């Protein structure tokens, strides 16, 4: 009875900035998924894989079921604003790694204040 305590020292959670069984919130999961898709759509457009924002959006809607009411990932990026998308992706990249680093196309739209559509 007087021996070592079994289990995890609860002070470790505070040091690591995590909570046991807490996991990411649903809103964070959704943001990570959607912004990843937006980023890849912008990358495809910037690299010439998609010929236009419209082509990229149609491909995402019919190809893998991006929500049509959002208009496609690039239309959604326009609705949010490229500056906000880049900022959110940079925050995600700091937290979860380079896979969330904003594409050059998104960064360019953020710098210039332009949209994928007009």
Shape: elongated
Poorly predicted sequence stretches spanning 5 or more consecutive residues: none
Radius of gyration: 19 Å
Can you tell me the CATH topology? Answer: N-(1-d-carboxylethyl)-l-norvaline Dehydrogenase, domain 2
Largest sheet: none
Short description:
With about 120 residues, this protein is mostly helical. The protein has one domain: N-(1-d-carboxylethyl)-l-norvaline Dehydrogenase, domain 2, CATH 1.10.1040. The chain has helices at about 10-15, 25-45, 55-65, 75-80, 80-95, 105-110.
Structure in words:
With 118 residues, the chain is mostly helical. It has a single domain, classed as N-(1-d-carboxylethyl)-l-norvaline Dehydrogenase, domain 2, CATH 1.10.1040. Helices cover 60% and strands 0% of the residues. The chain is built from six helices and no strands. The chain has helices at residues 11-16, 26-46, 53-64, 73-80, 82-96, 104-112. The longest helix has 21 residues, at 26-46. The radius of gyration is 19 Å and the shape is elongated. The chain starts with 10 loop residues before the first helix and ends in a 6-residue tail after the last helix.
